[in-house]
Amino acid sequence: MPARGQTQDILKRFESKINKDGAGGCWLWTSASTGRYGIFWVGSTPDIYYGKRNALAHRLAFELYKGPIPKDMMVCHRCNITLCVNPDHLYVGTRKQNSEDAAKAGLYRTKLTKQQVKEMRLLRKQGWYYTDLARRYNISKATARHIAKPDPIKWVHVK
Question: Could you say which of 27, 82, 126, 144 would form a disulfide bridge with 134 (CB–CB 3.0 to 4.6 Å)?
Answer without folding.
Answer: 144
